[in-house]
Automatic annotation (TrEMBL):
This is FAT3 protein. GO terms for biological process: homophilic cell adhesion via plasma membrane adhesion molecules. SMART domains: CA. Keywords: Calcium, Membrane, Repeat, Transmembrane, Transmembrane helix. The lineage of its organism: Eukaryota, Metazoa, Chordata, Craniata, Vertebrata. Residues 4-38, 39-143, 154-245 form the Cadherin domain.
Length: 379
């Protein structure tokens, strides 16, 4: 407890008694009676041979239960094991290489490190670090090509994470880093540590081929990353049809079924090869294991097929479509729960282009806007 706040009252013996009170604050001064604590108590680390001088090997973690003026900053010193000065330890507790290690020269080093706090008198503690020198990488990283589909309203893409590169390396201790060629950094970024791809705002309609590579420090391997951006037209939203799938997650649909279903759907609803199928969005149905896919079909001449025509085509081809994935319903209007009797049900569809959903798998990523349906009875 660092302090107490007491309210003290004095009362006299008169009639009636009179009193007064005062607040007394008692601060407890800290004594430097706690030594620094290493977490964990001892360390093990590895470094590959032939790594350049200055390679980071280990970050020491030290805490102190005393108050801030009796704790950090800590002073680190290598007491033993560094007689040939193969290592350096910076003021932040980062252990780095001071030479280029060779596996044939030595395979293991044991360092005794001291941490000293800033109190008076200073308190110290010790830890041991075992550093193993391993052979350099012999395997190249392997990466899966990634194809990304982005659907957005016209000139209204807000940007965000659009996918993730999946790469592996058979060398157990290799650390993979990802890079993107500088000329593409005005539109995209790649997280160097985890391979996440970030698109900046304002992407135009079209196809982008990203120049991405992954490196294990010795080998650098290019990765095929293609981004397709499709901007929606307002007219599409007035001619959409929804297919509702049963027992499928968005990621499973994107990774396992989307390509095959798109091909089967094209054969079912396109009247001419020049017609274009547009998958506008996919999103889970709240409170269920169902999934809605919103799409429209554009004629070669530029207009869009009416929903009634598409639904007729879908109904006739439903058996073939279900060879790919189980369909729960084909919806033009979603008036469930409304009793319009002899009146008509009117549906309006709205797109929230700033609420993007990213469904990412190892090979395919699909980024689309969230959509909402509003239905009402009309005379």
């Amino acid at each position: 407890i660092s302090g107490y706040s007491l309210v003290i009252q004095a009362r006299d013996s008169g009639t009636p008694p009179l009193s007064s009170s005062v607040t007394v604050n008692v601060d407890i001064s800290d004594v430097n009676d706690n030594s620094p604590v290493f977490t964990p108590a001892n360390y093990t680390a590895v470094i590959q041979e032939n790594k350049p001088v200055g390679t980071s090997i280990l970050q020491l973690v030290v805490t102190d239960k005393d108050s801030f003026h009796n704790g950090p900053p800590f002073t680190f010193t290598i007491l033993t094991g560094n007689e040939e000065e193969e290592f350096t330890l910076d003021p932040h507790g980062v252990l780095r290489s001071a030479v280029i290690f060779k596996h044939m020269v030595a395979t293991e080093y044991v360092l005794c490190v001291q941490a000293k706090d800033s109190g008076k008198p200073q308190q110290v503690s010790h830890t041991y670090i075992q550093v193993r020198v391993i052979e350099e990488s012999i395997h190249k990283p392997t990466a899966i090509p990634l194809e990304i589909f982005i659907v957005t309203m016209e000139d209204d893409f807000p940007g965000g994470v659009i996918g993730k590169i999946h790469a592996t390396d058979q060398d157990v201790y290799d650390v993979l880093t990802y890079t993107l060629k500088s000329e593409q950094k005005s539109l995209f970024k790649v997280n160097s540590h985890d391979g996440k791809i970030i698109a900046l705002g304002g992407l135009d309609n079209g196809k982008y081929v990203l120049n991405v590579s992954v490196s294990d420090g010795r080998f650098q391997v290019p990765i095929d990353v293609v981004v397709h951006v499709e901007q929606l037209l307002q007219e599409m939203l007035q001619n959409t049809v929804t297919i509702r799938f049963e027992n499928v997650s968005p990621e499973d649909f994107v990774g396992l079924h989307m390509h095959g279903f798109r091909r089967t759907l094209r054969n079912a609803v396109l009247s001419q090869k020049q017609d274009s199928l547009h998958i506008i969005s996919i999103q889970p149905v709240a409170g269920s294991n169902q999934l809605d896919m919103l799409f429209a079909v554009q004629m070669h001449s530029g207009g869009f097929y009416k929903p009634a025509y598409l639904i007729q085509k879908l109904t006739n081809a439903r058996r073939h479509l279900e060879n790919v994935i189980r369909i729960s319903a084909i919806l033009e209007k979603n008036c469930s729960g409304l009793d319009c009797q002899e009146q008509h049900c009117e549906q309006s569809l709205s797109i929230d282009s700033h609420s993007l959903m990213t469904y990412s798998t190892a090979r395919i990523s699909f980024v689309c806007p969230r959509f909402y349906r509003n239905v009402r009875c009309m005379c």
